[in-house]
Amino acid sequence: MTTPEIASLYFDLSNKSDFANIAKLFTNSTTYSSQNTGIYLGANAIIEMQKQFHRQFSVLNWKVNSIEEVKSGVVCLDYTFTGTKLDGGQIESSGIEYVIVQGGKILHIEIKNKP
């Protein structure tokens, strides 16, 4: 799989809340950094944070607006997130996500909100 394909697969699995297969894309040294959720080290910590995030929603979806491999192994995705909270409230946000891949595994994810 190419780096962009792995990054796209990560988004597809996230939309399905498929944590078992998301975890297979990570390593014990994968790092995750987001302005919204914080910094995490290792597949277990990242997956636990993602499970807690997903539990807040009855429906959630990340739409990839564009994807570009900006350097070898580094993909930049422009995305829009929409979700329905458990209380029925609607959320929409957009951001830029960098996914760094090496040897078929995601080494780092960095998320930046768009203004």
**Count of helices?**
3
Q: N-to-C terminal Cα separation, in Å?
A: 33 Å
- Strand/helix succession: HHEEHEEEE
Which class do the helix and strand fractions yield?
A: alpha+beta
Radius of gyration: 13 Å
- Beta-strand content: over 45%
- Strand line-up of the largest beta sheet: 2-1-6-5-4-3
The mean pLDDT is 97
**Strand tally:** 6
Unreliable stretches: none
| Helix percentage range | 25-40%
Can you summarize the main beta sheet?
A: 6 strands, mixed
Overall morphology:
globular
Structure characterization notes:
It contains three helices and six strands. 27% of the residues lie in helices and 50% in strands. The radius of gyration is 13 Å and the shape is globular. Strands 2-1-6-5-4-3 form a six-stranded mixed sheet, with helices on one face. The model has no long low-confidence stretch (mean pLDDT 97). A hairpin with a 4-residue loop joins strand 4 (74-85) and strand 5. With 115 residues, it is α+β, with helices and mostly antiparallel strands.
